[in-house]
């Protein structure tokens, strides 16, 4: 009869997942040394706006829109006082422009009224802003402020987490919790960028290029998707 080790099956599996994640991070880090946030911005406010606009829209299209938008709206007060129809027209190419314009206007008003026109650095404060969910808050905190309360989970991160066997949870919040349990905190900000770059270049939603994948020997889905 084997001697008890003092470790549960779940603990051993978690340790194994952490080791595999460290290997994944190392390979992706070498493969994508220039990985970064794909949204163009120069201030926390610009990143917050761009991230709100990126919902159901490609980063490339958002960057085309914000090129002129950021020249016209430079402060939180500019969004707060914006003519709603004009703002809708300015962001129309990003889709869902009526809801997004309303969110941007409300966000601007909240920033002016509660935070002196500045983007707050606390998760709870960001989540209280119109148009801001946890993904958006994580993007802003991680990339604008270098703070990492969590891991950004978008469609690429969701897809790769499932294919790599790290999480098949049904919601972004649960996927984030699964990843936070196995990812070193120092990599919370960069891991999504590496996964997104890999998802776009190799592990695509359709016809993934498993033969060119640096993670193929670690991936339970390699060749089966």
TrEMBL record:
InterPro entries: DNA_glycosylase (IPR011257), Endonuclease-III-like_CS2 (IPR004036), Endonuclease3_FeS-loop_motif (IPR003651), Endouclease-III_FeS-bd_BS (IPR004035), HhH-GPD_domain (IPR003265), HhH_base_excis_C (IPR023170), HhH_motif (IPR000445), Nth (IPR005759)
MF (Gene Ontology): endonuclease activity
EC number: 4.2.99.18
Key word Calcium present: no
Residues at which [4Fe-4S] cluster binds: 203, 210, 213, 219
Gene3D superfamilies recorded: Helix-hairpin-Helix base-excision DNA repair enzymes (C-terminal), Hypothetical protein, domain 2
Cofactors: [4Fe-4S] cluster
Domain named HhH-GPD: residues: 53-201
Cofactor: how and how many bound: Binds 1 [4Fe-4S] cluster.
EC main group: lyase
UniProt KW keywords: 4Fe-4S, DNA damage, DNA repair, DNA-binding, Endonuclease, Glycosidase, Hydrolase, Iron, Iron-sulfur, Lyase, Metal-binding, Nuclease
Top-rank taxon: Bacteria
Reaction(s) the record says it catalyses: 2'-deoxyribonucleotide-(2'-deoxyribose 5'-phosphate)-2'-deoxyribonucleotide-DNA = a 3'-end 2'-deoxyribonucleotide-(2,3-dehydro-2,3-deoxyribose 5'-phosphate)-DNA + a 5'-end 5'-phospho-2'-deoxyribonucleoside-DNA + H(+)
Annotated function: DNA repair enzyme that has both DNA N-glycosylase activity and AP-lyase activity. The DNA N-glycosylase activity releases various damaged pyrimidines from DNA by cleaving the N-glycosidic bond, leaving an AP (apurinic/apyrimidinic) site. The AP-lyase activity cleaves the phosphodiester bond 3' to the AP site by a beta-elimination, leaving a 3'-terminal unsaturated sugar and a product with a terminal 5'-phosphate.
Alphabetical list of PANTHER family matching this protein: A/G-SPECIFIC ADENINE GLYCOSYLASE/ENDONUCLEASE III (PTHR10359), ENDONUCLEASE III (PTHR10359:SF18)
Family label: Belongs to the Nth/MutY family.
Protein name (database record): Endonuclease III
Organism this protein belongs to: Chloracidobacterium validum
């Amino acid at each position: 009869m084997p001697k008890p080790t003092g470790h549960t099956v779940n603990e051993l599996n978690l340790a194994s997942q952490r080791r595999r994640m460290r290997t994944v991070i190392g390979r992706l880090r070498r493969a994508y040394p220039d990985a970064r946030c794909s949204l163009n911005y120069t201030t926390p406010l610009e990143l917050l706006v761009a991230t709100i606009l990126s919902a159901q829209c490609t980063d490339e299209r958002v960057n085309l829109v914000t090129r002129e938008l950021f020249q016209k709206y430079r402060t939180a007060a500019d969004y707060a006082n914006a003519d709603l129809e004009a703002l809708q027209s300015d962001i129309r190419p990003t889709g869902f422009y009526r809801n997004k314009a309303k969110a941007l206007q409300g966000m601007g008003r909240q920033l002016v009224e509660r935070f002196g026109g500045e983007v707050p650095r606390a998760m709870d404060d960001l989540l209280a802003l119109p148009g801001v969910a946890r993904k958006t808050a994580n993007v802003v905190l991680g990339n604008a402020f270098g703070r990492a309360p969590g891991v950004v989970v978008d469609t690429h991160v969701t897809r790769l987490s499932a294919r790599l066997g790290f999480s098949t949870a049904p919601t972004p919040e649960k996927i984030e919790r699964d990843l936070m349990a196995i990812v070193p905190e120092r990599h919370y900000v960069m891991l999504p960028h590496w996964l997104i770059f890999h998802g776009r270049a190799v592990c695509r939603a359709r016809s993934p290029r498993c033969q060119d994948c640096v993670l193929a020997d670690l991936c339970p889905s390699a060749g089966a998707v």
